[in-house]
Each structure stands twice: as structure tokens, then as C-alpha cells.
TrEMBL record, chain B:
Residues 14-224 form the Pyruvate flavodoxin/ferredoxin oxidoreductase pyrimidine binding domain. The gene is porA. Transmembrane segments: none annotated. The lineage of its organism: Archaea, Methanobacteriati, Methanobacteriota, Stenosarchaea group, Methanomicrobia. This is Pyruvate ferredoxin oxidoreductase. It comes from the Archaea. GO terms for biological process: organic acid metabolic process; response to oxidative stress; sulfur compound biosynthetic process. Gene3D superfamilies: 3.40.50.920, 3.40.50.970.
Length: 322, 368
């Protein structure tokens, strides 16, 4: 606001220049994202798919010297059907619970052979928070040199939207037809307990923030983890052109906080800097998604309280008060 | 070099001599000494491998899969509950045509907790696409482990190999054995489908019903192709190092009227039973099945057959007996003996022959 205010008080010419420089800076940031595509236009993703949007930027940041390890998840389907593939990178498809362990072996083998190839697990929330958490915990604890990305669409979306440990309170899924009565599992706290060298959250709605974090993660040796919110139109029941809008609402409501934690130091990033101070009510996010059609007023209040508690906890961490 | 040690130690020394690049390790009785010995080799520098101390057997096979996918030599070891816990990854590793080598210390499954020898663990992995060899001495544990790498990595095979040694009866007994300098007996690994950054592709992508069966059939082609590779490998081993192995080992079978068939340590014990029976005037012989997968049907030529299974398929029968019957048409006297480390002596085995009733089943300790 301060910048805009001074611009308004400036001479017309100066005002124009300030806006132009801001625009240019934005352009330059975006231009840092390479044109090269590793996820080709032949995916079998649903319309408005956030997982493929995320994957596109993840692979742009990672570059060609990368292997993706993918457990059973939406991306098993998104990449296409044999003998074709929409991925222009080696993709190793593995069993549901095994991604992080496969990546462990792969990373050790590459390093033993003197190769710096990025090993990236790209897994859904079910494959991470539920069935894959043991392997993830083991790989993090062993200091595996890899990046684990959990794209979180908050349910078993690939099998048609069953509840997962990541499904939020009140959400209707095919296995919680009356709405989920339990809270979303705090995956980030679990991962943080392993002290990875780099940990970040991101959201499909903010590709630049996401890109920067993947790029930074891969520049650091050791275990890295990213948790990326993936608003899923068919699963969450919103129109497929609103994927980005839904991600932005989640961040603005403080339900999803963009941050990175490098060697234990937490930094709030991007749009979440503003959301740490002022947020839209959670109703603005919940009311536009069909999956929350059965959420009660008490549950909505509980969701709002969880947001306030989480923001307060993160702010204390930022301020160094724990 | 002549040395002495347990079956576990022999396996570990063979692994050291085969020089894998990645070893994934998770302890379980009675296999633990294998991964402990390998940890020592890696720590002291006699094996330049990456040692991954995984958090479960599911992950040990997963880590081997990830490593083998890049085209390097891999090894792990397990037993009993560990093996069945990694069952999913057993299918995945064979299906991905990765030449992983694993030692399995044969042990019973719970409940109740029993750490004694039993083949139910490995037999239940029968249909995964893994080759399975059963050994009977410490020397054979060493030799079979070395040969397993050459067989698995052969480009006609490209399937994982499991070396099975009876828990405690072989893993924990000490015998003298000779180690070798393998030299180029195990050629450098050259996995044709190893991950290549410069030639990216999808591995294990969605594979529809009009294609999936072709990959399944390819596994069977690899399995069948492994038979001549095993024969050639065992012949070459004999030529270089002087010890002879065959697809199955016969003992005094030429003029036998009755043959006893078993796998693992019982297959060695029964040679003494054959000698006892011969002294009594019974023309007995013994066939020790070494390879369970691929299954190689021995020549039985109308002889009476007594099969000892250290396993059982509930609702069916002894697995080895059933498979021999199906493949050869014989009507075996099927003895179920040695489950959970139940003691079976050569006198017991001789008695099985004396009381044989072809086409029937006998539970040792139950039906006596």
C-alpha cells in the first residue's frame, strides 16, 4: 500500500515509470521459468487438473536430469497409457506405499555412480499421509538426497474421491457421505519432526512461488519435502475453470499457508504474507465447494478456529517464540 | 580360501565377493547375521556398497527396486514375516524385470511366534516371478549366492533370484567352506532397460488388457530361459572352482525302487536315511530339489516316491508333493514334516519310506 500511495502522489511521468518497473519485474520473474515442457499436452488429466499444473512447474524447475518416482495416484493416469507417455522425463511408477523407499535406493545408486540426477517423488496425499508415511519417514530419517512432493487434493481422487487422512473436517467424500468428522492430519508437523534440510508448502494457484521453491529445494543436498495444495474440481465439486481461484481462496482464508523452512528457519512467502495479517472468512472458501455442502455451523467455526490457531502458531515460529 | 562360518556368514561373504553397489537391510531372525556381516564389510571397506538401513522389508525390496532400476547390482536378505511383508514388492521387482538377489532364511509364520525352519514363507512367493533355489550346506549357500547374481543378471533371464537356506539348521550352523575369487565369473551388470536420462521413458505405466498379458508371458519366457542359463552357470562354476551343482541332486538313484524327495537341509539329511535303508535291503535313493522356480521335474521312471514337505497349502496339501504329482504323474507318499523347526532325523526319514502308502498324506507327529 505504501508503494501505491507514494506513486499516486508522484508526478504523472514518475507514476507511469513506477508501474512499468513493477510490471517489468513481474515479467522478469515469470520469464525465469523455462519454456521447455516435460509434461506434454497429451495428458489424460481431468479438465482444470491442479496436479498436472503443479507437475508442469515442478518439472520445469527440475530440468532434464531428473527421474520422477510416482506411486499409485492421479499422476499414474495423467502421464498416459502404454505405449505412449505425456512425460518427457524418465518416470518410474511404483507401488502405493513404496515411493520414498524406491527413491532412497535410486538416489543412493545414482550417487554411488557419481550422478547428480534429481530424484523426485511425486505423490498424492493418500500415498503420502496414509499408506506411504512409513516409507517417507524412513527416507527422511536416513537423509536420502531427494525431493518428496505431496500434491494434496485432500482425498483418494484417483479412485473417485474417498476420504484420506488429508481430507478436511466437514468434507463429503464417497466414504464420508455425511461429511468427515475428523480433522486433516498435520503432515507438515510430522515431516518437520524429521528436520529435513528444506521443507515448503506451495499451491497450484501460485506457480511462481512453487517454481522458486522446487528450484531452491533441488539446489540443496539431502532430504527435501514440499506439500502442495491441489484444488480438484471434480472431487471438491467446483467448476473446472476455478482451480486457480480456489487455491487463492484457500491461501487468502489462511487455510493454506505458503511458507518454507530452511534448516529449521521458517519464512512465510508470497500471498500468505498478507494472509498472516488479514484473512477472508473460511465460509468464503467452504461455501463455493460442493464437498462442504453438509458442513455444520459448529464445524465451520471449528475450521475457523483451526485457521486462527495455525496462523498464531506459525507467527510464533516466525517471531522465534516457541 | 578355506574358512569356516555359519550359513549366514557364507551368504554375506558371497555378497561381498559379488560386489553389489546397493544393499538394503532390515534385520529379522534368523537372517540378521547376514545384514550385520555386510554392514561390517561396508564399514571396514572390504565392500564398496551403499548400505541402506531401511525401516521395513517392504522398503528393503522397494529400495532394491529403485537402485536396480538405474542398472546397478543390488542385494537384500529377509525371512518369514519379512518376506511376506514385502510380497507386493516381490511382484513389482519381478514384473519390472530387475535382477535383484535376495537371501531368505526359511522360517515359520505366526501365530504363534516360531522362529524355526519352515518353507511356507518362500513357497508362498511361488507365483511372484522370482527364481528360487534351496541350499543344504554352508558351502552351497556361498556358491549359490555367487551364482545367483550371474543367473539373475543374464540378459536372457533378468529376473530376481532368491537363495533359500533353512533357518537355524543352516543359517546358524558352522561348517568349513571355501571362498573364491570370482573374477569375471559374474560379468559386469548391463541391464538393458536401466533408466537413461538421455532416453527418457515411462516405466510401469498404465498397461491395458490388450498388452498386459504380453509382459506376463515375457516373465515366463525369462523363467524358461533361466533353465539353460542355470545349467551353463553351474557348469562354468564347476569348471572354474571345482564344485559341481545340478538342477537337482540325485543320490543313489540309478537302481532305486523308491526315491525320497525334499528341499533344503532335509534333502541332505535323507542321504543318510538312504544308506540306512540300503543296509536293510531297500533299494532307496534321494532327489534333492534345488530349484523350486523354475520347477524342474526330475526323472522318476515309475519309482515309488516319498516327498517331504516342510510347508503346507491348507485345503490342498504339501506343495512340493502336489507339484511333483501334477508334473510327473507320480502318486507320492506325501509327508508333512519339519514345520516350525520340528526335529526330523534321518531315522525318521527312513521310517517315512518304510511306512509309505503311495497317494496318501502323512503328518509327522500327528498321524503316527
Amino acid at each position: 500500500m505504501h508503494g501505491v500511495a507514494s506513486a499516486l502522489h508522484a508526478e504523472p511521468n514518475q507514476y507511469f515509470i513506477i508501474i512499468h518497473v513493477k510490471y517489468l519485474k513481474k515479467r522478469l520473474d515469470t520469464m525465469a521459468i523455462p519454456d521447455e515442457e516435460f509434461l506434454l499436452k497429451t495428458t489424460s488429466a481431468c479438465a482444470g487438473c491442479p496436479s498436472s499444473l503443479i507437475l508442469r512447474y515442478v518439472t520445469k524447475a527440475a530440468g532434464a536430469d531428473t527421474v520422477l518416482v510416482i506411486p499409485a495416484c492421479c499422476t499414474s493416469v495423467i502421464q498416459g497409457v502404454y505405449p505412449t507417455t505425456a512425460m518427457n522425463l524418465p518416470v518410474y511408477n511404483v507401488a502405493f506405499a513404496s515411493a520414498a523407499a524406491v527413491a532412497s535406493g535410486m538416489s543412493e545408486a545414482f550417487r554411488a555412480e557419481g550422478k547428480k540426477t534429481n530424484v523426485i517423488c511425486y505423490a498424492g496425499d493418500g500415498g503420502t499421509i496414509d499408506i506411504g508415511i512409513q516409507a517417507l519417514s524412513g527416507a527422511l530419517e536416513r537423509g536420502t538426497d531427494f525431493l518428496y512432493i505431496c500434491y494434496d487434493n485432500e482425498a483418494y481422487s484417483n479412485t473417485g474421491m474417498q476420504r484420506s487422512g488429508a481430507t478436511p473436517l466437514g468434507a463429503v467424500t464417497t466414504t464420508t457421505p455425511g461429511g468427515k468428522k475428523d480433522h486433516k492430519k498435520d503432515l507438515d508437523a510430522i515431516v518437520a519432526a524429521h528436520n529435513p534440510v528444506y521443507q515448503a508448502t506451495a499451491c497450484a494457484a501460485y506457480p511462481q512461488d512453487l517454481y522458486n521453491k522446487v528450484e531452491k529445494a533441488l539446489s540443496i543436498p539431502g532430504p527435501k519435502f514440499m506439500h502442495i495444495l491441489a484444488p480438484c474440481p471434480p472431487g471438491w465439486r467446483f467448476p473446472s475453470e476455478k482451480t486457480v481461484e480456489m487455491g487463492k481462496l484457500a491461501v487468502k482464508a489462511g487455510l493454506w499457508v505458503l511458507y518454507e523452512r530452511e534448516n529449521g528457519k521458517l519464512t512465510i512467502t508470497g500471498a500468505s504474507k498478507a494472509a498472516m495479517k488479514k484473512r477472508i472468512p473460511v465460509e468464503d472458501y467452504l461455501s463455493v465447494q460442493g464437498r462442504f455442502r453438509k458442513i455444520t455451523a459448529e464445524e465451520t467455526a471449528e475450521v475457523q478456529k483451526t485457521v486462527e490457531d495455525t496462523i498464531a502458531r506459525l507467527q510464533r515460529e516466525v517471531d522465534g517464540i516457541c | 580360501m578355506l574358512t569356516f562360518g555359519t550359513g549366514n556368514k557364507a551368504v554375506a561373504m558371497a555378497v561381498r565377493d559379488a560386489k553389489p553397489v546397493v544393499v538394503a537391510a532390515y534385520p529379522i531372525t534368523p537372517q540378521t547375521e547376514i545384514v550385520e556381516e555386510i554392514a561390517n564389510f561396508v564399514t571396514e571397506g572390504s565392500l564398496a556398497a551403499r548400505y541402506i538401513p531401511v525401516e521395513s522389508e517392504h522398503s528393503s525390496m522397494a529400495a532394491c527396486i529403485g537402485a536396480a532400476a538405474t542398472g546397478v547390482r543390488t542385494f537384500t536378505a529377509t525371512s518369514s514375516h519379512g518376506l511376506v511383508y514385502m510380497c507386493e514388492m516381490m511382484h513389482m521387482s519381478a514384473g519390472a524385470r530387475l535382477p535383484i538377489v535376495m537371501a531368505n532364511a526359511n522360517r515359520a509364520l505366526g501365530p504363534g511366534w516360531n522362529i524355526g525352519a519352515e518353507h511356507s514363507d518362500s513357497i508362498s512367493m511361488r507365483d511372484t516371478g522370482w527364481l528360487q533355489v534351496y541350499v543344504s550346506t554352508v558351502q552351497e549357500a556361498y556358491d549359490a549366492t555367487l551364482m545367483a547374481f550371474r543367473i539373475a543378471e543374464h540378459t536372457d533371464v533378468l529376473l530376481p533370484v532368491m537363495i533359500n537356506l533353512d533357518g537355524f539348521l543352516l543359517t546358524h550352523i558352522t561348517q568349513t567352506f571355501e571362498t573364491v575369487e570370482p573374477g569375471d565369473f559374474i560379468p559386469p551388470i548391463a541391464t538393458p532397460h536401466a533408466i537413461d536420462i538421455n532416453n527418457p521413458g515411462g516405466y510401469g505405466t498404465l498397461t491395458p488388457g490388450n498388452t498386459h498379458f504380453k509382459f506376463r508371458h515375457d516373465i515366463e519366457r525369462g523363467m524358461q530361459a533361466s533353465i539353460p542359463v542355470i545349467v551353463e552357470t553351474e557348469a562354468e562354476f564347476s569348471r572354474r572352482f571345482g564344485r559341481e551343482y545340478h538342477l537337482y541332486e540325485e543320490y543313489r538313484c540309478e537302481d532305486a525302487d523308491v526315491v525320497i524327495i525334499a528341499m533344503g537341509t532335509l534333502g541332505k539329511e535323507m542321504e543318510v536315511a538312504v544308506d540306512i535303508l540300503r543296509e536293510e535291503g531297500t533299494r532307496a535313493g534321494a532327489i534333492r530339489m534345488r530349484w523350486f522356480r523354475p520347477f524342474i521335474t526330475p526323472e522318476l521312471n515309475g519309482k515309488d516316491v516319498v516327498v517331504i514337505d516342510r510347508d503346507y497349502s491348507f485345503g490342498y496339501g504339501g506343495v512340493l508333493a502336489g507339484e511333483l504329482q501334477a508334473k510327473s504323474g507320480c502318486q507320492p507318499f506325501s509327508v508333512i514334516a519339519g514345520l516350525g523347526g520340528q526335529e526330523v532325523t534321518y531315522d525318521d526319514i527312513a521310517e517315512f519310506v518304510r511306512i509309505r502308502r503311495p497317494g496318501t498324506e502323512h503328518w509327522f507327529g500327528v498321524d503316527d
